[in-house]
C-alpha cells in the first residue's frame, strides 16, 4: 500500500502564464523604480529557474500592491493593445510587396546592395551583404549577416537566424516585404 505522500500535489511544471505574470510584475516594479537593476536581474533569473508557485510568489511579495481590479484592468488593456498591434501588422502585411520564396537549392539566397547577391536591393538602408535566406530541411531560415540597419521578421529584429514562413513580414533596413510561396 502506498501513502498519500508519494503523490505529487503540485503541478509537475509551472505554467507559462504564472511565470509570465511574475516576469511582468518584476518588469513593472523595475520601471517604477521599486527594484534596482541588480535586484531585477537576480529576481528574473530566479523566476526563470523556479519550480514551484511559492517560489514565484516570494519574488513579487513586496511588489504585488495593486488590487485585483487594477490588475484586471491593466491586463485587459495590455491584451487589447497587443491585439491592436497584431491587427495593424496584419493589415500592413497585405499592403507590402511580395517577396517570392526561391526554389530550394544548394546555396542560400543572398540579399543586399552588392551586385553579386541573388536579390539585389538598391536602397541606402540596405547593407552590401545584408541577409541570406536558406532552406534547411522543410524550414526556411533567414539570417542577418551583420547588417548596419538590421533585418526584421514581423517587426522583431533578427539576431542570428530565425525560421520564417509564408506570409511573414520581412524587412531589410527600411525595405519591407511579405514572404509568399508560389
Number of helices: 4
Rg to the nearest angstrom? 23 Å
| Unreliable residue stretches | none
Helix content: 25-40%
Shape: elongated
Q: Biggest sheet: strands side by side, in what order?
A: 1-10-9-6-7
Strand content: 15-25%
N- to C-terminal distance = 63 Å
Descriptive account of the structure:
The protein is an alpha+beta fold and 182 residues long. It is 36% helix and 22% strand. The strands form two sheets. Strands 1-10-9-6-7 form a five-stranded mixed sheet, covered by helices on one side. Strands 3-2-4-5-8 form a five-stranded mixed sheet, with no helix packed on it. The radius of gyration is 23 Å and the shape is elongated.
Outline:
The chain is α+β, with helices and mostly antiparallel strands and 182 residues long. The protein contains four helices and ten strands. Strand 9 and strand 10 form a beta hairpin.
Describe the SSE topology:
Layout: H1 16-31, H2 37-49, H3 53-60, H4 68-95, E1 98-100, E2 109-112, E3 119-120, E4 131-136, E5 139-144, E6 151-153, E7 156-157, E8 161-164, E9 169-172, E10 175-180
Parallel strand pairs: 1-10, 2-3
Antiparallel strand pairs: 2-4, 4-5, 5-8, 6-7, 6-9, 9-10
Helix pairs in contact: 1-2, 1-3
Amino acid at each position: 500500500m502506498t501513502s498519500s505522500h508519494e503523490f505529487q500535489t503540485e503541478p509537475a511544471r509551472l505554467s507559462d502564464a504564472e511565470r509570465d505574470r511574475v516576469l511582468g510584475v518584476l518588469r513593472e516594479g523595475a520601471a517604477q523604480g521599486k527594484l534596482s537593476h541588480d535586484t531585477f536581474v537576480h529576481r528574473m533569473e530566479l523566476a526563470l529557474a523556479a519550480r514551484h508557485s511559492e517560489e514565484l510568489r516570494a519574488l513579487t511579495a513586496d511588489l504585488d500592491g495593486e488590487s485585483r481590479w487594477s490588475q484586471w484592468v491593466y491586463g485587459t488593456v495590455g491584451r487589447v493593445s497587443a491585439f491592436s498591434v497584431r491587427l495593424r501588422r496584419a493589415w500592413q502585411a497585405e499592403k507590402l510587396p511580395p517577396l517570392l520564396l526561391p526554389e530550394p537549392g544548394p546555396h542560400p539566397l543572398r540579399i543586399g546592395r552588392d551586385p553579386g547577391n541573388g536579390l539585389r536591393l538598391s536602397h541606402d538602408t540596405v547593407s552590401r551583404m545584408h541577409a541570406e535566406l536558406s532552406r534547411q530541411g522543410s524550414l526556411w531560415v533567414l539570417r542577418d549577416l551583420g547588417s548596419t540597419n538590421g533585418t526584421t521578421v514581423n517587426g522583431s529584429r533578427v539576431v542570428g537566424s530565425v525560421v520564417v514562413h509564408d506570409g511573414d513580414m520581412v524587412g531589410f533596413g527600411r525595405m519591407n516585404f511579405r514572404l509568399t510561396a508560389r
